[in-house]
Amino acid sequence: TFHRERVENFHFNFSLENQIHKEGEYIRDRFIDIEMKSVRFEDSLFEECHFEDIWSTDTVFKNCTIRSTLFYNTDLWEEKFIDCRMENTTFEHNKQGCHLDMVEENDVLIYLVSFLGSLAVLPGNIISALFVEKIGRVKIIGGSMLISAGCSFFLFLSFSQSAIIALQCMFCAVSAAAWNGIEVVTVELYPTSKRATAFGVLNALCKLAAILGSSIFASFVGITKAIPILLSFTALVCGGLVALRLPDTRQKILQ
Prior knowledge:
Shape: elongated
Distance between the termini: 72 Å
Helix content: 40-55%
Strand content: 15-25%
Number of strands: 14
Number of helices: 5
Oligomer: single chain
Radius of gyration: 26 Å
Largest sheet: 9 strands, parallel
Low-confidence stretches: none
Order of helices and strands: EEEEEEEEEEEEEEHHHHH
Structural class: alpha/beta
């Protein structure tokens, strides 16, 4: 904890971590190409300072006065300035893309979204188990993948947090039915001598797709959300249409 420090004409070129600065004065200081991790400025004055290329995590400015200061290429957005007074302050080229800030409120949301996504798989499993015989394996797979494609596409139209979480839950529930259908068809389509091999190939393709998906999406998600959404939509639509051409294995005797 730093209390009533006064720093003038200083170049901060080292990372700041686990610090609390209270009632400080920073005059013509430069914060260049550093990381701020768990840093809190309270009741402090920043005058003619320069922030550039800043990465921050759990960093906030509370009840501060910021005058004639430039923020260039930083992720210090509005929500990180709590009850602050801005005078002739400029923000240029703010960092874009997905950003995860480990504040306490966000921790709850992260686990809540994860929990709801996992919980949504349960009704998908129950529905597919009840209707896989009546509707048919092929229709379960194809229909589930096409509905999942719709959930991906509607992300374009979703701007609220609750809508995105709802679409995620729907996607998890519906896609679970497709996976169950694929596993049932795999068992019934191949004879016993090849069934284990079929499951091995299926699991290997799943792992490969997961690696490719993570790599491709990670490279585009910071640029635009359109490419990951369209790639997911296209893959699911193609998979759903191909799945509808699979042979129906209902009433088929296992070999």
